Amino acid sequence: MDELSGGQRQRVFIAMVIAQDTDYVLLDEPLNNLDMKHSVEMMKLLRRMTHELGKTVILVIHDINFASCYSDRILAMKEGALVCQGAPAEIMQPDILRDIYDMDIRVEVINGHHVGMYYM
């Protein structure tokens, strides 16, 4: 594993977690060191684990759009405290996102997913 890139190592760790066959999977920043393509593949894999294998996946992730597009529920934290929780459509509201991130974020619905437009 010493010769693998950070992204490859990340995927190996996920494979090891899957092989352990636990009911719950806890992940801290599973997209760290992954490019866009591999980040999407990772999130699709985690989503499949919930549907096909019946796993409960709990992850810490800083990208609100990945959370919105792939999660059943979002628990939003700020300064170490839980600020709000709910379904992605409930959390992905401009007023709620402003409270969490201290910035204005326009939200668009794209293919049924609420996406924060914070690059502009």
Can you characterise this structure?
The protein has 120 residues and is an alpha+beta fold. The protein folds into two domains: 1-61, 3-Layer(aba) Sandwich (Rossmann fold), CATH 3.40.50; 72-120, no CATH class. It contains five helices and six strands. Strand 3 (74-78) and strand 4 (81-86) form a beta hairpin. The longest helix has 17 residues, at 36-52.
Summarize the structure.
The protein has 120 residues and is α+β, with helices and mostly antiparallel strands. The protein has helices at 6-19, 36-52, 64-70, 88-91, 94-101; strands spanning 24-28, 56-60, 74-78, 81-86, 106-110, 113-117.
Please outline the helices and strands:
Blueprint lengths: L5 H14 L4 E5 L7 H17 L3 E5 L3 H7 L3 E5 L2 E6 L1 H4 L2 H8 L4 E5 L2 E5 L3
Parallel strand pairs: 1-2
Antiparallel strand pairs: 3-4, 5-6
Low-confidence stretches: none
Share in helix: 40-55%
Structural class: alpha+beta
Examine the secondary-structure arrangement and name the CATH architecture of the largest domain. 3-Layer(aba) Sandwich
Fill in the CATH topology of the largest domain. Rossmann fold
Rounded to an integer, what's the Rg over CA atoms?
15 Å
Q: What is the CATH C level class of the largest domain, in words?
A: Alpha Beta
- Order of secondary-structure elements: HEHEHEEHHEE
CATH level-four homologous superfamily name of the largest domain: P-loop containing nucleotide triphosphate hydrolases
**Global mean pLDDT:** 92
Main β-sheet, spatial strand arrangement: 1-2
User: How many structural domains does the protein architecture include?
Assistant: 2
Strand content: 25-35%
N-to-C CA distance = 39 Å
Q: In this structure, how is the largest beta sheet organized?
A: 2 strands, parallel
From the spread of the alpha carbons, the general shape counts as globular
Please tally the helical runs, counting DSSP H or I stretches of 4 or more residues: 5
- The strand count comes to 6
